[in-house]
Amino acid sequence: MNILLVDDHEVVREGYKTLISALIPETSVHEAECGKTTFQRLNDLKFDLIILDINLALESGLILAKQILHKYPDMKIIFFSMFEDGAILRRASETGAMGYISKQSDPQTLISAIEEVQKGHKYIQQEIAIKLAKQLLNEQIDIEARLTNREFQIFIAFAMKKNRHEIANELSVSTKTISNTLTTIKRKLEVEVNDFTSLAVQHGYIGSPASAPPS
User: Fold this and answer.
1) Which residues of 98-122 are buried (b: 16+ CB within 10 A; e: fewer)?
2) Are residues 115 and 15 in the same domain?
3) Least confident range of 10-24, 77-91, 104-118, 124-138
4) Same-domain status, 176 and 102
5) What is the arithmetic mean of pLDDT over 112-125?
6) Domain range for 44
């Protein structure tokens, strides 16, 4: 079985790579630290399963999961994250991923998740499933439904504290286009750009980011 472990912390990748290799015989674990490297690995080798962190340094794992499943619709994905907030859990469940476990769980939980998902079964850690059920009882306004795909990408980028030049380079557009789109986003959501991060966290699109320079 080939597994791709996507996490932006090398120590985390090495630790879980060793764990999985030791507890699941005949398993080859490969690593990626970001979306770009993930797709490079997927182009080079056929994987049975991806273990994906939600809060990557440069992007949202939730969006990356959707991109992966768009290109590889049969791919099995397990989210593996520190975040157990109900809103994030709901977003994760909507991506099409088959599993969700906490990084605080014991090693056997990870192994059980891998084994069950590989069989085609969904796996959500019990404590997390309870939080997800509670979240489903508390409907929230769907920001993604209010914005176009490009507007949503830019909203998330600003929420992750990226500046106009970084976003323009990533999306291959001008900074003027970014500024114009930003104006549209603020009008549609009726908030200022300084509120994007808290709004994205509240609705479960990203985890709470580390401190970053303002855009």
Assistant:
1) bbbbbeebeeebbebbbeebbeeee
2) yes
3) 124-138
4) no
5) 90
6) 2-136
Q: What is the pTM of this model?
A: 0.63
Count other C-beta atoms under 10 Å from residue 190's C-beta: 8
CA distance linking residue 199 with residue 206, whole number of Å? 9
User: 214 pLDDT exceeds 50?
Assistant: no
Last residue of a domain, one of 136, 153, 187: 136
What phi, psi does 79 have (nearest 5°)?
A: -80, 135
Q: Is the CB of residue 6 less than 8 Å from the CB of residue 51?
A: yes
Percent of the chain with pLDDT over 90: 51
Q: Are residues 41 and 132 in the same domain?
A: yes
DSSP letters spanning 43-107:
HHS--SEEEE-SB-SSSBHHHHHHHHHHH-TT--EEEEES---HHHHHHHHHTT-SEEEETTS-H
User: Which tokens in the block code for residue 208?
Assistant: 């709470």
